[in-house]
Amino acid sequence: MNKKSLALALCSMMLFGCGHCSPTIESIPPQECIKSSSIVDDWSGVLDVGTVKVTLVLHIQKDSNEQLIATVDTLEQKVNGTSIDLVTFDGGLLKFEIKAASAKFEGLLVKNESEISGQWTQSGQSFPLAFERGIKTVEALNRPQEPKLPFPYTEEHVSYDSSEAGVTLSGTLTIPTSKNSPPVVLLIAGSGPNDRDETLLGHKPFLILADHLTRAGIGVLRFDKRGCGKSTGNYKKATSQDFANDVLAGIEYLKTRKELNSNQIGLIGHSEGGLIAPIVAAKSKDVAFIVLMAGTGVNGEEILYEQSALTQRAVGETEKNINQCREFLKQIIGAVKKESDPQIAGEHLQKIAKNYMATLEGTHENVTLEMLESQAAHINSEWFRYFLTFEPTTALKQVQVPVLALNGELDLQVPPKQNLPPISQALKEGGNKDFTIVELPNLNHLFQTCDTGSIKEYAKIEETISPSVLNLITEWVLERTAQKKGNIDDENNS
Hints:
Layout: H1 3-10, E1 42-48, E2 53-62, E3 68-74, E4 79-83, E5 85-90, E6 93-98, E7 103-110, E8 115-122, E9 125-133, E10 153-161, E11 168-176, E12 184-188, H2 205-215, E13 219-223, H3 240-255, E14 265-270, H4 272-283, E15 287-293, H5 300-314, H6 319-338, H7 342-360, H8 369-379, H9 382-389, H10 392-396, E16 403-408, H11 416-429, E17 435-440, H12 467-479, H13 482-493
Helix pairs in contact: 1-5, 1-6, 3-4, 5-6, 5-9, 6-7, 7-8
């Protein structure tokens, strides 16, 4: 099992890639008497994690107390000013940590102080990274679907409190100006620390979706997940149930907006958001309809096994290694499910990782014990524990409002053949009278038109969401709200 296959196997709905051999920090001779002032500058480097290359611009400064402070920009994703924690520079060695991303960097100032050469470590994996002085620019990614100002609708930045103390959610509400009392949808992002646009690899799927819906006469609320963007709260401690509570808070907020139709509040969830939407719809009588974009129909354990196999095959992994990954996953997941106490489970996971590492010694030089332990600890997190065992069909059977469930034919992260049938069956068993299930040809997990569905294609594809998907969702929503009736009446009266 190589490093690439293991990373893909152990991370559900997250992007990882293969590492590359490079000199370790210890192999570069230390430099004496380098002052901290020599590190204060702008630095640029390209992080290659296999599935994607990311250009980072590091800004190192001093505060009023002469202490080092720093931020980092991620150019391809258009994310600027991410705070860096624990910056130190001693004897030519720079260290910093980004706690929110579970990332660390260690590098030495070399080449006449023109380069910082070192290792980027994240989620147990290490990648070579060299920063050079100066601010690098990248060619702007062509994202032709992104809307340009001015918009033919009202856009308002809003905030509201969740039911949990200390959690204030921030988002963007777009309201059509062409109709009175329009229907409105709330967008629910997939797994990961997503912002209101669900920004990923230069794409902004929720910006595109919100713009398309609002132009068609449907209001849209999209928001930063708790602990992300401008929303407060602790993202790392949250589960899908906590995110569902945040969606319920969004519904309550929408009910206060008198210019919107409070009887026509719908939910559109992508990936994990497609798991959350039925949970909310089963609880709230204020939900009028839901749209599931790559929503899950089976528990997280089943998703993870299938997802890891498909993503590994997409990068050419052997069936032998795929099976090895599956067996290791089974051991980890089994330990987590058996032991409810995360601390005790963590001790079991460390033993499993060490025992498994012993079977790999001498055959897989890129796999480290740190990597195995880190990935195992990720599955032991609160979010993953909930995800592994939650059965989406339990909530789906309680949903009586109209449902549109969509999956891309080439979705390797939430495979349609695995998930659409149980979604359909659950809705049928629950007595739902209005549901539509669609598998869309040649589309991936992001609903982009693609060749293989591989994660590597995401950033390269210019299309953010297939226009056919945007039109399908919009038309389906309008058919189930008074908005379409209003359009027809207007046409008849003209």
